[in-house]
Amino acid sequence: MIVSEFAQKSGYTVINEGESRSIENGYCGDFLSNIISRAPENCCWLTVMNNVNVAAVATLIDCACIVLCEGVLPDEAFAVRIRQLGIWVLGTQDTVFQAAKKVANICGI
Predict the structure, then answer these.
(1) Residue 91 DSSP class
(2) Angle CA(76)–CA(80)–CA(86) in degrees, nearest 5?
(3) What is the DSSP letter of 107?
(4) Which residues are within 8 A (CB) of 72 and not within 5 positions of it... i.e. 6 or more apart?
(5) Which of the 8 DSSP states describes residue 15?
(6) In the beta sheet, which residues pair with residue 66?
(7) Based on C-alpha coordinates, what's the Rg of the chain?
(8) Element (H, E) at 68
(9) Which residues contact 20 (CB under 8 A, 6 or more apart)?
(10) Model confidence over 61-108: pLDDT tens digits?
(11) Taking the CB of residue 94, how many other CB atoms lie within 10 A of it?
(12) Could you count the other beta carbons within 10 Å of the beta carbon of residue 61?
């Protein structure tokens, strides 16, 4: 499922739109070295981290989108960087667990 379709079906807030990407998997985590070594390409990355390092890691792992959970919003540097890089970032009040269930159910993964 492409990210824009997931955003619409999930009801999550679009913080930043990126290029058209397909969500093929999901990954939950906040420990950046684990994300780098374990997150699959084209994943929907669920996190509560909101700093510019998240944009760097998202680019490195080539994720389809980032979902900021639990009402977290990007800090200023992160917001600037995701616009520059064209990274899909969505936001939700859902916990990471609730969001993971939603991603799995809507995307069929």
Answers:
(1) E
(2) 140
(3) H
(4) 47, 48, 49, 50, 91
(5) E
(6) 45, 89
(7) 12
(8) strand 65-68
(9) 2, 3, 4
(10) 999 999 999 999 999 999 999 999 999 999 999 999 999 999 999 999
(11) 20
(12) 19
Residue with tokens 């492409």: 2
pTM of the model: 0.96
Q: Token pair of 7, please?
A: 């955003």
Phi-psi region of 13 (alpha: psi -120 to 50; beta: other; left: phi over 0): beta
Residue (of 96, 89, 107, 83) closest to 10 by Cα position:
107
Q: How far apart (Å, rounded) are the C-alpha atoms in residues 109 and 95?
A: 19
Residues 6 or more apart in contact with residue 1 via CB below 8 angstroms: 9, 22, 23, 106, 107, 108
pLDDT tens-digit readout, 19-55: 999 999 999 999 999 999 999 999 999 999 999 999 9
Query: Any alpha helices (H) in 1-109, and if so which ranges?
Result: 3-10, 32-38, 52-61, 76-85, 96-107
Question: What pLDDT does 46 receive?
Answer: 98
**Residue 99 and residue 52: Cα distance in Å, rounded?**
22
